[in-house]
Prior knowledge:
Belongs to the Nudix hydrolase family. NudK subfamily. The protein is built from five helices and ten strands, in the order H-E-E-E-E-E-H-E-E-H-E-E-E-H-H. The protein is α+β, with helices and mostly antiparallel strands.
Amino acid sequence: MTKGHYRDQLADQHLDFRIIATETLHDGFRPFQATTLTHERLDGEGELGPLRREYLATGEAVVVIPYDPARDAIVVIRQFRIAAALVLDLAAALELPAGLVDPGEDCEAAALRELEEETGLVARAIERCYRILSSPGLTTEHATIYLAIVDTADLTDSAGKDDEHEDIRPILARVDDLIAAVDDGRIENAFLVGCAHWFARKGRARAQVLSGTLDREDDAS
């Protein structure tokens, strides 16, 4: 390995590491764990450690961009978020439908489930867009982002699961207004900010192709 190896390629890359021990510090809504390990130096000359890293062991998650092409609008949701309350004093945060993948569930099924639970909508078509590590220095959460084609004619005023104490308000936002809100710094949710920037570059074109599959299915029937 050369010293320039990690500078020359604009992509996440492999780095050898060795886990010595892992312990669970707290087993709550998200398990809080600590791992002791060593890892290869970036210059390839030896290794660092042993060192200890603490993190939330979250696992697979999904985020959905629900887009209504007839209205050129995206459904966002508003709900209470403790971190937004403590850090910004803006507890009624805007975000996208999202959640963890249940054991034995695939990511697309989880995306469809979260969309319906948090907006009351059923996707007419859905496709995977990209994946993201939400905060790799803090959590193992690995999220798959989906684009869903929806019809918001009967969008509900409220959603969420009572047994999870969810109080969710779905909101229909014109795409240009949503992107402007992100650009103006009025929204700070990382998933929503990232997805809005992605949609501004690629979303309408991807949605047009995805909607075309529905038209072909209608013609075939």
